[in-house]
Specification:
InterPro entries: DEAD/DEAH_box_helicase_dom (IPR011545), Helicase_ATP-bd (IPR014001), Helicase_C-like (IPR001650), Helicase_put_actinobac (IPR022307), HRQ1_WHD (IPR055227), MZB (IPR018973), P-loop_NTPase (IPR027417). This is DEAD/DEAH box helicase domain-containing protein. It comes from Streptomyces collinus. With 773 residues, the protein is of the alpha/beta class. Helix content is 35%, strand content 24%. The strands form six sheets. The protein has a seven-stranded parallel β-sheet, with helices on both faces. Strands 24, 25, 26, 27, 28, 29 and 30 form a seven-stranded antiparallel β-sheet that branches. The protein has a six-stranded parallel β-sheet with strand order 8-15-14-11-13-12, sandwiched between helices. The chain is globular and about 75 Å long. It starts with 16 loop residues before the first helix and ends in an 11-residue tail after the last strand.
Length: 773
């Protein structure tokens, strides 16, 4: 929708004078054009998504209409007036936004009663928030588990709900995004029952087709404002490839210095120079390692500097997170090693530099992290330090893939039956579910209801479906997509709770013998009790880190689409994956040298999900000069590299997906490579791979062929999580195999319209997730 002539550069006339005064008191004389346009849409009653860069003032775009509604409703007879619900993907962001809105609304007196309602909120404060709060800031987890199941206690808030603000909505992708989409549909259903129809105001990083993604997330039509009119300082962006070392890894492959060590050095140098910096790391362990290494090196320069660097990650206790946020805000901390929990989080204006240790998985996340520097309009530095893997290596040698390509579309699938089924149960527990309600939840709902009745979860009575159990229906699912009770990490000597680990990550991160890092201290896991969800640890100082190894097998349940690729076939459908953590490697700190492998005895886990797979024929193998001796290694190498490159084409990272390659698969009866979603029911990543297969596999072949190594290395075909110890692998065979396969590939448009020997596996692993409710 184009801006209205003469009105898009100023706030609309209807905004109350008090709100304008409050905005000006915050130092904002004139809004930017995109802020004014978004506010105008909201005041007209239209749902709107603002998709602009970091530090572009998105929060003001939704705060002005929200504050206007709160001021206008302050004198309502019920004393409540209009209400607003704010959703953030992390607690840190909600807490920071609460501080900001209180500062902005201070001139408005008691018209705005803002409060955070999440798992850290003291119980004595919760009743006041339910009764009197008119700007409630929470996260999707708390909405799912705490607010919606208790909707009678929130009835006055919900019946007055005028706006729902969804911040950082580009992060709601994959399984998590699909769950949030259904939580929002449950919210809309309850609001309708109480007579409310809230307007949705969404803020997103720059993304492809933000209005389409926002509509898929909320289920309502959404207007788009994507023209960023905010001033920008110069951003110098460096691509940094760590040097090769004299060490050799598995199968004699050359080893680069780790991205963790390089990022720690950069953070140290920046801190010594007084440059305020954040180093973003993909894992909790990486954040802790960079913090420890940097602190040790700073102490050698000046002991007082060591305390000015810290780690920030999910899994910390609430009081630890709050203390770190305050220290960063005040400038007490100069450097921080953080996971993506801070990418979305607090306003840390004044940062001079950002170091990104490893490609974060999507271009949207890359620019979001880089945009954390220079937030006050000054020039800034961003450095992407490449990890030793196919995707990072490809990007530092092909910068056009970062700088000349648009950001990705957000991938989510609310109709995933594994996602939809528990939300139908939760909805029925909140209010009996009628046939009229099914339109809200999507076309897949009607087919699921008989299955839920057969499972004795729902029962049909007269005209509605009812929840039949005594336990809470909302507890059927963890919307972060991991499932299961979090594992508590407990110190053996003191009984002190150090933090928690997601159930899905426990097998690979807190198994017996694992090195666990917390607040700069190193612990060894002495035992993992899966039944009681407890990992017992004791403080230690081993000179190594640990990496879990898995094995994976796969079977085809159903083939949805199958198209010819020359003599071969490209397929998409449902599969069952069996995965088991079988051992772990000990790697020397800094160098990454493998010191040894230890076997583990952990139970297998089964996953039903979605996959893309391709097969090749004997004729194709002959043309590629692939004999039986190198067939397994060629398939295995192509599998590893294709998994490594897929995040460039789908909004996922390597740890969201897995793969299996088999010289003769019992279901296809041909040599086959599978790539699958690492979440129950799928997450849309494999489907995206199917539709972009020609481009994806062309980039995969190019990445392998252009690598300077002789026989394969972590930069092209070796995987850090390979259950077979990266054996067998055959680099040249993989290049020839992909060359022949791609000769028969149809044009991408055609693909999109058609929408045994021991297996070599590259299993999916849970990625870093923000803390829960």
């Amino acid at each position: 929708m184009p801006p209205r002539e003469g009105r898009h550069a100023v706030w609309p006339d209807r905004i109350r004078a008090e709100v304008v005064a409050a905005v000006r008191a915050a130092g904002i004389e004139h809004p930017w054009a995109h802020q004014a346009r978004a506010a105008e849409h909201a005041l007209d009653g239209d749902s709107v998504v603002v998709a602009t860069g970091t530090a572009s003032g998105k929060s003001l775009a939704y705060l002005v209409p929200v504050l206007s509604a709160l001021v206008e409703g302050a004198e309502a007879p019920n004393g409540r007036g209009a209400t607003t619900l704010y959703l953030a993907p992390t607690k840190a962001l909600a807490a920071d936004q609460c501080r900001s809105v209180k500062e902005l609304s201070h001139p408005l007196g008691h018209s705005v009663r803002a409060a955070v309602y999440d798992g850290d909120t003291p119980f004595e404060e919760r009743e006041w928030i339910r009764q009197y709060g008119n700007y409630v800031l929470t996260n999707p987890d708390m909405l799912h588990r705490g607010i919606l199941p208790s909707h009678p206690r929130w009835s006055s808030f919900l019946k007055s709900l005028k706006y729902v603000v969804i911040d950082e909505c580009h992060t709601y992708r994959g399984v998590f995004g699909s769950h949030v989409a259904q939580v929002l549909r449950r919210l809309r259903r309850l609001c309708a029952r109480y007579g409310a129809s809230p307007v949705f105001l969404l803020a997103s990083a720059t993304a492809a087709e933000p209005a389409v993604a926002a509509r898929r997330l909320t289920g309502v039509p959404v207007l788009e404002v994507a023209d960023d009119a905010s001033p920008r300082g110069e951003l110098v962006f460096a691509l940094w490839e760590p040097p090769l070392t004299e060490l050799h890894g598995e199968k004699g492959a050359p080893v680069r210095r780790t991205a963790t060590a390089e990022a720690a050095d950069l953070l140290t140098d920046l801190t010594v120079q007084g440059v305020r910096s954040v180093a973003f790391v993909r894992s909790r362990r990486g954040a802790e390692l960079i913090s420890v290494i940097s602190q040790e090196r700073l102490a050698e320069v000046d002991r007082s500097l060591a305390g000015r660097v810290a780690a920030y990650r999910g899994g910390y206790l609430p009081e630890e997170r709050r203390a770190l946020e305050q220290a960063l805000q005040s400038g007490e901390l100069l450097g921080l090693a953080a996971t993506n929990a801070l990418e979305l989080g607090i306003d840390i204006s004044g940062l001079d530099a950002v170091v990104i240790a490893g490609y974060p998985g999507t271009r949207a996340s890359l620019w979001q992290q880089a945009g954390r520097a220079g937030r006050s309009g000054q020039g800034a530095l961003a450095v992407l330090v490449a990890r030793d893997d196919p995707l990072d290596t490809f990007l530092v040698h092909h910068p056009e893939a970062l700088f000349d390509q648009p950001v990705e579309s957000t991938v989510l699938d609310p109709d995933n039956p594994y996602v939809l089924a528990p939300h139908l149960c939760a909805a029925a527990a909140e209010l009996p579910l009628t046939d009229e309600d099914l339109d809200l939840f999507g076309p897949a709902g009607e087919a699921l209801l008989p299955q839920l009745e057969a499972a004795k979860l729902l029962r049909r009575r007269t005209r509605a479906w009812h929840w039949t159990r005594r336990e809470r229906a909302a507890d059927l699912t963890d919307i972060r997509g991991e499932g299961g009770r979090p594992v508590q990490v407990v110190e053996t000597g003191t009984g002190r709770l150090l933090g928690t680990v997601d159930a899905g990550a426990a097998h690979s991160t807190v198994h017996e013998g694992a090195v666990h890092l917390h607040q700069g201290r190193t612990y060894l896991v002495r035992s993992l009790d899966l039944e009681d969800s407890v990992a017992l640890v004791e403080e230690a100082a081993p000179p190594y880190s640990t990496v879990a190894r898995d094995t994976t097998s796969i079977s085809v349940l159903e083939t949805d689409v199958e198209i010819p690729w020359g003599d071969g076939r490209l397929c998409y459908g449902s599969v069952e994956v069996t995965n088991q953590v079988v051992s772990y490697l000990r790697r020397r700190l800094i160098t990454g040298e493998v010191l040894g492998e230890t076997k583990l005895d952990l139970p297998p886990r089964t996953l039903r999900t979605r996959a893309v797979w391709w097969t090749v024929t004997e004729d194709q193998l002959d043309r590629a000069r692939i004999n039986p001796e190198i067939l397994g290694g060629s398939l295995h190498a192509a599998e590893h590299a294709s998994i490594g490159l897929l995040p460039l084409f789908a909004t996922c990272d390597r740890w969201d997906i897995g793969g299996v390659s088999i010289p003769l698969h019992p279901d296809t009866l041909l040599p086959t490579v599978f790539v699958y979603d690492g979440h129950p029911g799928g997450a849309g990543f494999a489907e995206r791979a199917f539709h972009t297969a020609r481009t994806w596999l062309t980039a995969t072949r190019q990445a392998i062929a252009s690598c300077e190594c002789d026989a394969g290395c972590p930069s092209c075909i070796q995987s850090p999580k390979c259950g077979n110890g990266n054996d067998p692998l055959h680099k040249r065979g993989a290049v020839r195999l992909l060359t022949v396969l791609l000769e028969g590939a149809p044009e991408e448009k055609e693909t999109a319209d058609e929408a045994p020997e021991q297996a070599q596996g590259d299993p999916a692993d849970p990625s870093e997730a923000p803390p829960g409710p």
